[in-house]
Prior knowledge:
By secondary structure, this protein is mainly α. The chain has helices at residues 11-38, 40-65, 67-72, 83-99, 104-126, 138-159. It has one domain (11-159).
Amino acid sequence: MSSFSPQRPRPLHLLAAFASGGLLTFAVYINAEAGRYGGALYSSWLAHGTGTIACILVLALLWFRDRPAVTALANRAPLWAYLGGISGAATVMLTSTAVNTPLALAGTLSLGLAGQVVFSLAADQWGLFGLPRRRLTLRDAGAVILITAGSLLIIFVGMGS
């Protein structure tokens, strides 16, 4: 495994990560609305169907404008990289269902964040998917505890109001 030397993130990177969280919240809400009217499977098909159409349009645009970008698509990704679509479909179905329960949007996303942090720490610890291994620290455990506590506050204190 390669060694990883941490660097300070640039402000634009922080803003991009923060904005992606906002977009994710918006997407989860839209998928939940589709799930409320048509079910979780419908919501997943709708999200991925429109995504497929958008991707085809972008690829068609690249095909005519930027041939090197299209030839770069021919490089083979590892087989596990194709699992992203499966986990994405499952995520849409699970969040579409959970948002339409007493968890609501904030509870669903806060528990989702806790799950993301726990899984990403496990991936760092064991070097999953070709990531460089990283020894976990007490700070990491503290972060998980605080995020989980925040999730529980959002869910249980928020339910009382």
